[in-house]
Design a protein that fits this description.
With 390 residues, this protein is of the alpha/beta class. 42% of the residues lie in helices and 15% in strands. It contains 13 helices and 15 strands. The protein binds pyridoxal-5'-phosphate (PLP).
Length: 390
């Protein structure tokens, strides 16, 4: 029995994912098993809990800033895990990854400028761009031999548009699960240099990488680009207790962003987040390795089950992230009927594909960071509903 086999909470908790009013407003019922938000059902690694307990027992919350210790921990982690050499002087702390992206877009472009995203993509990217009064420029991903790849021809056209200033990259990609390889990243970086575009790379999922892929950061290719190295949120299940971290190798850009963050006091952090982050990166490796192994076994089970029992559904096997992207288009159902099948009949709260791109009504995303028993139960329900519908 694995520690990840235990479902630690029922539906009485106040997490956003299982909150009845959220379920009701999005999925039309309160009685669904939630697989929509990209967080984890697992208890965090023991060293994180111990560190948080130490702070509570201390009972003193005087001002305490330790960002250099966090940057060192992230730097050591990335060197060991991804052979990624980083410079301590290029880090900045921010309250969260989305805050970081929102700030960078405002600092590095003007109202009316275009920001490229590779669709279908994490739905908050649209909001971040639009609420900054910038324009979403789509560079849709292509499916070649059953696998998502970048469309460089289309990208070239989009980069040539005068208003385009930024490419917001998602690496690993949420929701399609690609971990962009060196050839793709190098090409992307060369294109961006040729057209004088900054790549902002959201790398929040970079530690959940399965055996067939290797993670590379965009900052290895060109120092003009910026990595949102992310945060320990996705890696260690610290979604509500983590800050975000920017990595800006270019000195002039670093100074500009640093000045804004400083002027708004966005880098103070919080002592729980600080020490939990340090504990996670310095003592959490074994836990993450076990987690990735567990998730990969779950993916194998899901892939086999879907291919054998519900072949009408296509699974895009992820190279990274704990999201599974499912294509229901072979069922040939109108959008309403597909929602009825998944939400009402199977009672599964999967994330609708339309959240990631308006043309993806036949797709859904499933979060698999939950015990395998719960995934088995969910997919069995889906199979029964599909069998009954045909
Ligand atoms: C690609 C991506 N970026 C950012 C976030 C959220 O980051 P934060 O909570 O630190 O703002 C998520 C969460 O799902 C994500 O998938």
């Amino acid at each position: 029995m694995s520690q990840f086999d235990i479902l630690n909470h029922g539906h009485e908790h106040r997490f956003v994912k299982g909150n009845p009013s959220n379920l009701n407003s999005i999925f039309g019922s309160t009685e669904l098993i939630p697989f929509w938000i990209a967080d984890m059902d697992f208890k965090v690694a023991e060293p994180i809990t111990k560190e948080l307990q130490r702070l509570v027992n201390r009972g003193i919350y005087a001002y305490e800033f330790n960002s250099n210790a966090i940057f060192q921990a992230i730097k050591d982690w990335n060197l060991k895990r991804h052979q990624l050499k980083l410079n301590s002087k290029s880090f900045l702390q921010i309250t969260g990854v989305l805050t970081g992206i929102a700030l960078l877009i405002r600092e590095l472009s003007n109202e009316g400028d275009g920001v490229i995203i590779q669709t279908p993509v994490y739905h908050q990217f649209y909001k971040i761009i639009q609420t900054a009064n910038r324009e979403v420029v789509r560079n849709p991903l292509k499916i070649v031999d059953g696998r998502y790849v970048m469309d460089f021809e289309d990208l070239k056209q989009k980069l040539q548009m005068e208003k385009t200033k930024i490419l917001l990259l998602c690496n690993p990609h949420n929701p399609v699960g690609r971990v962009w390889n060196k050839v793709e990243l190098k090409k992307l970086s060369q294109f961006a240099s040729a057209y004088n575009i900054t790549i902002i790379s959201d790398e929040i999922h970079s530690d959940i990488i399965y055996s067939k892929a290797t993670f590379n950061s965009i900052v290895s290719f060109n120092n003009k680009h910026i990595a949102i190295l992310g945060s320990p949120a996705k890696t260690f299940g610290m979604h509500s207790i983590s800050n975000g971290f920017l990595y800006i190798p270019h000195e002039r850009v670093f100074s500009k962003i640093n000045a804004t963050i400083d002027s708004m006091y966005l880098d103070h952090g919080n002592v729980f987040s600080t020490f939990a982050t340090i504990a996670a990166y310095t003592k959490g490796e074994k836990w993450v390795n076990e987690l990735v192994e567990y998730l990969e076994k779950s993916i194998d089970w899901i892939t086999n089950f879907v291919q054998n029992e519900i072949p009408q559904v296509k699974v895009f096997i992820p190279e990274g992230t704990y999201q599974i992207w499912l294509d229901f288009s072979k069922l040939n159902l109108p959008n309403e009927a597909l929602n009825d099948l998944v939400f009402s009949k199977s009672k599964l709260a999967l994330t609708p594909g339309m959240w990631f791109d308006k043309d993806h009504s036949q797709f859904m995303r499933m979060n698999i960071a939950t015990p395998l028993s719960q995934l088995k139960d969910a997919l069995s329900k889906l199979k029964i509903a599909i069998d009954e519908s045909i």
